[in-house]
Write a structure and sequence with these properties.
With 321 residues, this protein is mainly α. It contains 13 helices and 2 strands, in the order H-E-H-H-E-H-H-H-H-H-H-H-H-H-H. Strands 1-2 form a two-stranded antiparallel ribbon. It is a multi-pass membrane protein. One of its GO terms (molecular function) is G protein-coupled receptor activity.
């Protein structure tokens, strides 16, 4: 029997189902606890960084301006992803509409692109501070930083992704393997030819994170060349020390993402659980760890943070009295 167009259209998917840990539903409540902690610590940590930098004029330097941009991006990533994850684990709220899914993946990919771009700007900042320390303030003026921030206009590269997905009808299994939406997985649910989406997805990945990572690598080659020319051993170590926080941020961001890409490309026999965990690490660990890394390594920032918490403790103690 040939189905009518009306009957066939009823078979199209109207919602996606998000997945927690398949087969682990009986411990979803316990699994949600680490996600809650990550969420709270990410929000508090990045908010404190922003508050300290905004209220302390001595921190209105290029490095800290870039750090505040990184903190805003990390806040956006946490707010975009973790509430949806908690809904899946805590309340078994697995359904997500197509439009909501497209919106979420747009923000996930855009904010990831922002983070990659900020890490590139910070690499340039580290190059300037090591190659021209005496002219650092005159080179990286607020006007130049604002012009460098125009890199975010390149969000137009990500903008077509949800529209390319929206033109499809979805008639395959509607269960996603994560508790959030990403382009590479959603497009595979489509009934139609997805060649354009595959090519455009690869293009955006190469043009954003691929190009950024290459330029970051070249920046550090130039930094290393500059640092190796320093005769004094102490100055050599001091110069390298200025880059440690940024190198940690780069490793936290790119290592899980690259590992996940390699598994998707070459590890077809790998455990689905490993892919799920790497997916969570690539999106949730940088917003959690970046404030900690920069707070530990920056004496000025650490001192201000300690002072803020001491003042809060003293005010709360006086209020109780």
């Amino acid at each position: 029997m040939i189905l009518s167009p009306e009957a066939f259209s009823n078979n199209y998917i109207q919602i996606f189902l998000l997945t927690g840990q398949p087969g682990w539903e009986y411990v979803h409540l316990w699994i949600s606890i680490p996600f809650c902690l990550v969420y709270v610590l990410s929000i508090v940590g990045n908010s404190v960084i922003l508050f300290i930098i905004k209220t302390d004029p001595s921190l209105h330097e290029p490095m800290y301006i870039f750090l505040s941009m990184l903190a805003i991006t990390d806040l956006g990533i946490s707010i975009t992803i973790i509430p949806r994850i908690l809904g899946t684990y805590l309340f078994n709220s697995r359904e997500i509409s197509l439009d909501a899914c497209f919106a979420q993946l747009f923000f996930i990919h855009s904010l990831s692109f922002f983070e990659s771009s900020i890490l590139l700007l910070m690499a340039f900042d580290r190059f300037v501070v090591n190659s021209n320390p005496l002219r650092y303030a005159s080179i990286l003026t607020l006007l130049r930083i604002a012009k460098m921030g125009l890199v975010f206009v390149a969000i137009v590269i990500i903008l077509p992704l949800p529209f390319l997905l929206k033109r499809f009808q979805y008639c395959r299994a509607n269960v996603l393997s994560h508790s959030y939406c990403v382009h590479a997985e959603v497009m595979n649910m489509a009934c139609s030819d997805i060649t354009v989406n595959i090519m455009y997805g690869l293009f955006t990945k190469l043009l954003t994170m691929g190009l950024d990572s290459l330029l970051i690598f070249l920046s550090y080659v130039m930094i290393l060349k500059t640092v190796l020319s320093i005769a004094s051993h102490e100055e050599f170590l001091r110069a390298l020390n200025t880059c440690i926080s940024h190198l940690c941020a780069i490793l936290l961001f790119y290592t899980p993402d690259l590992s996940l890409a390699m598994i998707h490309r070459f590890g077809n026999s790998s455990s689905p659980l490993l892919r799920i965990i790497l997916g969570y690490i690539s999106l949730l660990v940088p917003p959690l760890m970046n404030p900690i890394v920069y707070s530990v390594k920056s004496k000025h920032l650490r001192a201000r943070i300690i002072r803020v918490f001491i003042n809060l403790w003293l005010h709360s103690g006086n209020a109780n009295v």
